[in-house]
Structures are given as C-alpha cells and as structure tokens.
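Let us practice reading a record.
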Amino acid sequence: MQSFISPKIHYLSLLVVLTLTLCSCAVHTKPYSEKEWAEKGVTSLETIEAGGIQHAVLIRGTDRSNPLLIYLHGFAVPMMPFAHLSYPGTEDLMEQRFVIVNYDQRGSGKTARISGKDTGPFTIDQYVKDAEELIETLMKRFGQQKVYLSGISWGSVIGMKLVQKHPEWFYAYIAEGQAVNIPETYREVRRFVVAEAAADNNDKALAELK
C-alpha cells in the first residue's frame, strides 16, 4: 500500500487546480445563439442571497416556463466548471426540457470567492437552510410551485433533508451516490485502511491511525 505521488501526478494535479481556478473566475455564461432560445430562455451567472450570504448561481434553459431542475453538488466540489458534463451529449436537450440551476454552496467555488471562505456555520442545518431559501427565491422568480431536485454525494444529504421537510416542493428527487449512514461509512473506511496498512506492514500508517 505504500506509495508516493510521482512528479507527473503532481504536475497534473496542479494543472487541474489551475483550470478550476480559472473557471471559478468566469463572470458570465455563454448565451444562446438561436433567436427563439435567446428571447424565451435564460443564460445567467449571478448571485442570489440565501442564508445571509451571496451564492453564485448558474441558470440555463431555452424556455423560462420549463420546470426547474436544481443540482446540489458534492462536498467542496462545485458543479459550475462541470455543469454540462452532468448531461454529456444531451446538453441542448436537457436545457430544452428544464431550466437547469447549479449553485456553489457556502465555502465552495465562486460563492467562497464572492462571500469568503469563513462563512460558517458549516452545518447540515445551515446548508439545508441555504438551499431552502434559494429554492423559494427561484420558485417565486419563475412562477413555479414545484421543482426537480438532484443531490450528488454530499449534496444528497441536503437533498434528503429538503425532501423530508418540504415534500410538496418537489416533482421528483434524483439521488446520485446517495449518502445513507455517514458515521458507518467513516468506520468502514477506517477498517479498510487499517487492514491494508497491516497487510503492507506499514507501521508508520498504523501508528498514525491509532
């Protein structure tokens, strides 16, 4: 199990970080070129206040009257740089059927750049409150009573809380990598790491894991 990160991996990691940094500095999103979509749709990268801070929000759809589909990203992995990768090969189709919303949670991505990194409390309740206020704002703005919600990994923790509190808000909830029992997940990860370190006779790792 003992291994060291090669210089090549270091270089690639730095390149990825630089790419994400540049993406987080973008101040606009590509508008639609088709006249009808430009007139009826929305392509907006903006800030919306939720939970007492400004959140960066990306909204795209060819028709404002289509249902909202809101993404909750994974832990500290903002979706905006990868927004269209959420529906590869069907980019226009998705945006023709939904008004797609990606937002960076507090402490992450553009929201961290706008509002700062130290914007706690970083609790589940606070992240749920942020999402609640954002969804309410969007439903009012687009004149909708319900939305579609997608929670990815850590975002599925927020998603489940939202569905439990406000089932009447959602047409459907789509989970990707649904978190079920986080404490048990951590315990299982630790058991696996300890077993691998023992099998590899990695005394340093075992000492650190005690």
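A brief commentary: Strands lie at 42-50, 53-61, 68-72, 99-103, 147-152, 170-176.
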